[in-house]
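User: Fold this; tokens only.

Assistant: Input:
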Amino acid sequence: MLARDEATERLAGIGPFHDVHPCGRSDSAKAVGQWGTLGEDRLGQPLAQADLRALGRAIGEHCAAGQTVAVGYAPVAGAQRLDPSSPVAGTTHVPPTAAAAGVWTGAIPYNGPMKIASWNVNSLKVRLPQLTQWMGETRPDIVALQETKLEDAKFPVDELAAAGYRAVFSGQKTYNGVAILARGHAPSDVVTDIPGLDDPQRRILAATVGDLRVIDLYVVNGKAVGDPKYDYKLDWLAKVREFIAREHERHPNLVVLGDFNIAPEDRDVHDPAAWRDSVLCSVPERAALEAITGLGLHDSFRLFEQDAGHHSWWDYRQAAFRRNLGLRIDLILLGDALKGTARAAAIDRVPRGWERPSDHTPVTLDLDI
């Protein structure tokens, strides 16, 4: 039987493990008791008792055989991919590399891809019912919000906790405001102000959720090309790019998302000729966005969908939503390290058709991590 430190060392490079535990003879009840947080999934959500009991039985069997047990949050190298329809299937797979190290490897029940979302709610006070309804129906793991328009003291912490979400936020009265919500997991290592940018407007929020570093942005609108606010937007983007570059170096599993107030290409605009050289679509703004993606970030939506006609924002006027006269300005960018884990990206148009909607609609990304 391996000592814990030796087992951990031998397992290096095999996979992401919850913990390593050397145990001798044990029944399943004792085995489960020896794992403090084994009853949670990768984001801290409670597991079904039947799944936990099945995993406990498997742990007990291998403990009884005198093997060291390692339990991972996800399939590990050499193991058969876990089937979400059979949550405990991974508990019987023994990767050859782990077996060679004298270690039995199980897996905490796999709950399918992680869903990440971004939504400019255009007043969280007004849109809280829509937000909680949408989260209840779609069950995203992480939600980044923009334009919360709430002072921190008035942020609906309790209401969101009742919906199953922990929140960090940076807000102000009437304008701006950003927040990151995580289902059953408290975001940590929070940043609200970045070096070199003295800005009282609450537009930036970074936090760690599980293995991901998440940066939520509500980019300056710019008002009009040539306006002082437009020049400020370009300077703001340059300073934010520097911050993102540093964060990406520290956190390869990086997601940058939010309302960018920039349509990346003409295919993201309902009428490119009408919007050409206008704010949100001008060449300098697009170049600033390209400077950010040039850091090794990818527009997740364009990993899956290449056609024009997909928008995330529509003006309230001129029946713009019904006529699909919109722009795609809400983006989820992911770093090189995560690109291979992307499984789907979408624009959920449904909430835009609800009563009292935001002028934006949620955008989502599914990651298999």
